[in-house]
Automatic annotation (TrEMBL):
Signal peptide annotation: 1-22
Family statement: Belongs to the histidine acid phosphatase family. MINPP1 subfamily.
Name of this chain's protein: Multiple inositol polyphosphate phosphatase 1
Native source species: Acipenser oxyrinchus oxyrinchus
UniProt subcellular location: Cell membrane
Any Pfam family the entry gives: His_Phos_2
Keyword Transit peptide: no
Lineage: Eukaryota, Metazoa, Chordata, Craniata, Vertebrata
Length: 472
């Protein structure tokens, strides 16, 4: 499998057995493997995919075809999917926080209280070198997702179209995304097609394209107005001072037997995410989970959702507008498929998979008007937002996927949309697979405008600003 990087072809030896950079750690079989913590569905962007589709816990390859079936007599001609990378290690920044809270608890060792004791016996195994890399579970997320999508739409996943390089794979340059893409392909090749003779089949190219998959880094207006704007996330900072959050802090301090003044919202979040990492990476319910009940978890979930709302969602218009390039790319692909299907009945590219980040999906979903609450999420309205639709744990867990399936039907083409393998209706449309032209009418303003260059350009007055590209 070759990877196109900056238009130069770099050969990536595609050995199915390599896949192991930082994953020489496997779940310690002596560890206590308890039930799923009740707080598991509140981990926001660090939520397991299985939490949104719990039936997968029983059968990871199960496809429920009934809700995917269309009313009309149609046949699928093209699939385009935007997919988030799979389960990953914490980033170096988060590992530092995790170590900080662990060290704080370690100091209270001598007091020998139950929970503190359990945490002290828990083995601190995270380190900086793991820095956001895909874990083995993350590879499985993608291998299995590939098999399920192929099972749902077998005619779009023919071995021949793969061999002829008519299936397209585009990825962000981040290690976890490239590895996710390779795992997705591996799932098709080994688990779905069960190809024997692999070497000669692996000649197609994988495209690394950050303009499409990490557009947020390339959008100057976003970088300056949001990323570098000290007040862009003020609602998040403010929420951390609110009574709801303060209660959680006090409670955690008391459970850990440390002074309330020693603990911060950041450290409490680190403890919360430690529970998430142990569950998603090692399938363990760790003692960290016992620090929180569901009410605490809802508060911490809100803090995460608030941040995503203001940084990636509806909070600032440029967040969604920065995805204009990806939006146009998707519709260009669909247009071409419709045109070819109408002209000759065959589509040259039956499938395109684009692997990126939660930060890729959230702006696109916001641009297209999904999960928009009537009232903005703010530091003050936690209680009122209990039933909000902007819930990142439901929308963008690990390996989350937005899938467009174009069908040729009697007299027209229809577009079916799935989020995380479940039908998603277009805003203000009831039909789960409206006519393609209707979808284009719905988005006519965006299709006519939404110019990435124009939206992302800063007025020349601030032309002296030199944007710093942040690592995400
Ligand atoms: C995860 O742990 C549960 C027990 O809590 C077990 O039933 C399940 O098989 C494990 N899943 C995997 C994928 O190992
Ligand atoms: C990080 O952890 C891995 C796995 O336990 C280990 O191989 C590696 O040496 C550790 N790195 C550091 C810097 O401690
Ligand atoms: C920074 O964010 C604040 C809060 O959302 C917003 O009011 C302000 O316009 C932003 N500044 C710039 C330069 O965009």
């Amino acid at each position: 499998m070759a990877v196109v990087l900056n238009r130069h072809v770099v050969l990536l030896t595609f050995a199915f057995t390599r896949f192991c950079s930082a994953c020489n750690i496997v779940a310690n079989r002596d560890d206590h493997t308890g039930d799923i913590p009740t707080i598991a569905k509140y981990f926001g962007t660090k939520t397991r995919y299985e939490e949104v589709n719990p039936y997968l816990l029983n059968d990871i390859l199960l496809v429920n075809k009934t809700p995917l079936r269309l009313q009309q007599d149609c046949s699928p001609v093209h699939i385009s999917a935007v997919i988030r990378h799979g389960t990953r290690y914490p980033t170096a920044k988060n590992v530092k926080k995790v170590i900080a809270i662990y060290n704080l608890v370690e100091k209270t060792k001598h007091r020998g209280r139950g929970l503190v004791d359990d945490i002290n016996h828990w083995d601190m195994w995270y380190n900086d070198t793991m820095d956001g890399q895909l874990v083995e579970k993350g590879r499985d997320d993608h291998r299995n997702l590939a098999v399920r999508l192929a099972t749902a739409y077998p005619s779009l996943f023919s071995e021949d179209s793969f061999r002829d390089c008519r299936m397209k794979f585009i990825t962000s340059s981040k290690h976890r995304c490239v590895d996710s893409t390779l795992s997705f392909i591996e799932g098709l090749v080994k688990k779905y097609w069960k190809m024997q003779d692999r070497r000669k089949d692996m000649h197609c190219q994988l495209e690394v394209n950050d303009d499409l998959m990490r557009f947020f880094d390339k959008c100057e207006r976003f970088v300056v107005d949001v990323e570098q704007n000290k007040t862009a996330l003020q609602q998040v900072d403010l929420f951390k001072t609110k009574p709801e959050m303060q209660e959680v802090l006090d409670k955690v301090a008391s459970l850990l037997d440390i002074a309330a003044s020693d603990i911060t919202a950041d450290l409490v979040e680190a403890a919360f995410y430690m529970c998430s990492y142990e569950l998603s990476i090692r399938n363990l319910s760790s003692p960290w989970c016992q620090l929180f009940d569901q009410e605490d978890a809802k508060v911490l979930e809100y803090a995460n959702d608030l941040k995503q709302y203001w940084k990636r969602g509806y909070g600032h218009e440029i967040n969604s507008k920065s995805s204009c390039c990806l939006f146009h790319d998707l519709f260009k692909r669909l247009d071409k498929a419709v045109e070819e299907s109408e002209r000759s009945g065959t589509v040259s590219e039956p499938a395109a998979f684009q692997i990126g980040h939660a930060e890729t999906l959230l702006p696109l979903l916001s641009l297209m008007g999904f999960f928009k609450d009537e009232t903005p999420l703010t530091a003050d309205n936690f209680a009122q937002q209990g039933g909000r639709v902007f819930r990142t744990g439901h929308i963008v867990p690990y390996a989350s996927n937005l899938v467009f399936i174009l069908h040729r039907c009697e007299g027209s083409h229809r577009l079916q949309l799935l989020l995380n393998e479940k039908p998603l209706s277009f805003p203000n449309m009831d039909d789960p697979a409206p006519e393609y032209q209707e979808v284009k009418n719905l988005y006519s303003n965006l299709l006519k405008g939404c110019d990435f260059k124009k939206e992302c350009k800063l007025p020349s007055a601030s032309g002296t600003v030199n944007p710093i590209i942040h690592e995400l």
